[in-house]
């Protein structure tokens, strides 16, 4: 076992990933190091928070083959960190062909002492026709099977492909699992990220996670923007590779957890990293291009690793849901993407911890948390001794049960227990309709489970329009309706 989970929340986790060159704490980012273009010296990446880097074995093979074999990839790059090597699949996707076979590039990765090697998979573009995606996947799986014999002392990453065909993504994960990898790398998502198709990305991740065991290390290839990290971690991704810090810097783009800014648009830096403290936007704009790119790349790394640390703290505090729900509001497509989790309730519930410190309501997305569904199901098992039961929406009212959004029915004895008791929720009149409807769904399930009892439902008038088709054993009393 190369992976030990030490803390978890939602589907995310903090883990210890053991490699030949040391243990890496996940989730983390692997900065992409171009062996021939040194924007930031690889030896300096530690100061930003890097624990591991990734470089392109195909570029090394083409340009510095003998040197790489003689020195090894770690000495060549000048790092003592674990190094993952990509096989050239990106070049294959961009240019349609590479001048190396799968066996040759795998052997080369092993010879240069890569900690994690990757076969030459076929990254099928989004929306490819089914037969093309299937044929590409067949080749990828053949190459993954071939990769096992080149593994040696290295760890093996097996790419998960299949374009936007979810059954092929599942098939890819199932077959990779049979082959047996140390890392399962979800590939082919860069074009989706570039076009803000976050819904497709989320669905692909969840389909793959539904196949992989909970202790599988998951790498999300090409997801290098900090605004995406919390969502991807919450869905169970552990490793990310970022070329974005450098690519964006070359285009004078400034990364934040809330999106990307053009340097020309900035009057003030909203960050407190060493770069943003030392310089103003005007000063960076006046610099020569090479220095400006390096400083922007440094900022982009600082802010990316800051977001990873923020995510880790949220996992420790069991507040990852709250962090994700704040981040997804930076782009409407992220918001739509996160709502897909409602279609994967069982999967999400199988990962999310049962007990947490508190439930902090941030909007209708909070209704999709496993804690809500779990509470509604568990309350059905509560034994009721009396025949006449009072359910009230007023927590100051003397009642047997309380109606509380978004949870539904809460026994009086559980009003101090997680999740409903340990919750920060606004009053019903300030909540979205989705939260009230979710609570009423739980109420109806509870009432249906006790057809022989008589219920007196004491509620504020805001609840009335949602209380339709109640069983005949329920009498409604309005707490705040004025008499005629």
TrEMBL record:
The alphabetical list of record keywords is: Glycosyltransferase, Metal-binding, Transferase, tRNA processing, Zinc
Q: In which pathway does it act?
A: tRNA modification; archaeosine-tRNA biosynthesis
Binding site residues for Zn(2+): 271, 273, 276
Q: Where does substrate bind?
A: 121, 188
Q: A GO molecular-function term, please?
A: zinc ion binding
The free-text cofactor remark is: Binds 1 zinc ion per subunit.
- According to its UniProt record, the EC number is 2.4.2.48
Q: Which Pfam families match?
A: TGT
Show the active-site residues. Answer: 86
All copies of domain tRNA-guanine(15) transglycosylase-like, residue ranges: 12-332
* Annotated InterPro entries: ArchSynthase1/Queuine_TRR, TGT-like_sf, TgtA, tRNA_ribo_trans-like
For this entry, list what GO says about its biological process: tRNA wobble guanine modification
Highest taxon of the lineage: Archaea
| Catalytic activity, reaction form | guanosine(15) in tRNA + 7-cyano-7-carbaguanine = 7-cyano-7-carbaguanosine(15) in tRNA + guanine
One GO cellular component term: cytoplasm
Q: Which cofactor does it need?
A: Zn(2+)
Query: Main role?
Result: Exchanges the guanine residue with 7-cyano-7-deazaguanine (preQ0) at position 15 in the dihydrouridine loop (D-loop) of archaeal tRNAs.
HAMAP family per the UniProt record, alphabetical: TgtA_arch
Name of the protein in its database record: tRNA-guanine(15) transglycosylase
Species the sequence originates in: Archaeoglobus profundus (strain DSM 5631 / JCM 9629 / NBRC 100127 / Av18)
């Amino acid at each position: 076992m190369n992976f030990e989970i030490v803390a978890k929340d939602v589907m995310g986790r903090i883990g210890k990933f053991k490699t030949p060159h040391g243990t890496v704490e996940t989730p983390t980012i692997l900065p992409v190091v171009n062996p021939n273009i040194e924007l930031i010296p690889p030896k300096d990446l530690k100061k930003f928070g890097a624990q591991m880097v990734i470089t392109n074995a195909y570029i090394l093979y083409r340009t510095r083959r003998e040197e790489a074999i003689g020195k090894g990839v770690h000495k060549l790059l000048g790092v003592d960190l674990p190094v993952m090597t990509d096989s050239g699949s990106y070049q294959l996707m961009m240019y349609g062909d590479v001048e190396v076979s799968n066996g040759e590039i795998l052997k080369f990765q092993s010879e240069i002492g890569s900690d994690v090697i990757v076969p030459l998979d076929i990254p099928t573009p989004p929306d490819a026709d089914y037969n093309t995606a299937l044929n590409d996947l067949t080749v990828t799986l053949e190459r993954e099977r071939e990769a096992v014999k080149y593994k040696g002392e290295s760890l093996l990453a097996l790419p998960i492909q299949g374009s936007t065909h979810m059954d092929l993504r599942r098939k890819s994960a199932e077959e990779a699992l049979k082959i047996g990898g140390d890392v399962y790398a979800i590939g082919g998502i860069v074009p989706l990220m570039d076009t803000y198709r976050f819904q497709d990305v989320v669905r692909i991740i969840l389909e793959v996670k539904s196949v992989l065991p909970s202790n599988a290390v998951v790498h999300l290839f090409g997801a290098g923007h900090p605004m995406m990290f919390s969502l991807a971690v919450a869905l169970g991704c552990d490793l990310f590779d970022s070329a974005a810090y450098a690519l964006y810097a070359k285009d004078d783009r400034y990364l934040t957890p809330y999106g990307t800014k053009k340097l020309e648009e900035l009057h003030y830096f909203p960050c407190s990293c060493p770069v943003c403290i030392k310089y103003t936007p005007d000063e960076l704009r006046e610099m020569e291009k090479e220095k400006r790119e390096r400083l922007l790349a440094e900022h982009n790394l600082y802010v990316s690793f800051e977001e990873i640390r923020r995510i880790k703290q949220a996992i420790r505090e069991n507040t990852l849901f709250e962090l994700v729900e704040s981040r997804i509001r930076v782009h409407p497509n992220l918001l739509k993407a996160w709502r897909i989790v409602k279609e994967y309730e069982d999967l999400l519930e199988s990962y999310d911890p049962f007990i947490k410190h508190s439930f902090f309501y941030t909007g209708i997305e909070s209704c999709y948390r496993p804690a809500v569904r779990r509470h509604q199901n568990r309350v059905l098992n509560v034994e009721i001794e009396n025949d006449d039961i009072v359910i009230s929406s007023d927590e100051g009212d003397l009642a047997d049960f309380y109606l509380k959004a978004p949870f539904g029915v809460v026994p009086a004895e559980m009003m101090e227990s997680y999740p409903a008791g340990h919750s920060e929720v606004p009053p019903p009149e300030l909540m979205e309709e989705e939260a009230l409807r979710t609570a009423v769904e739980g109420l109806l399930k509870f009432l249906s489970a006790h057809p022989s009892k008589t219920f007196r439902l004491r509620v504020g008038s805001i609840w009335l329009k949602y209380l339709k088709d109640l069983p005949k054993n329920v009498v409604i009393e309005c707490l705040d309706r004025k008499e005629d």
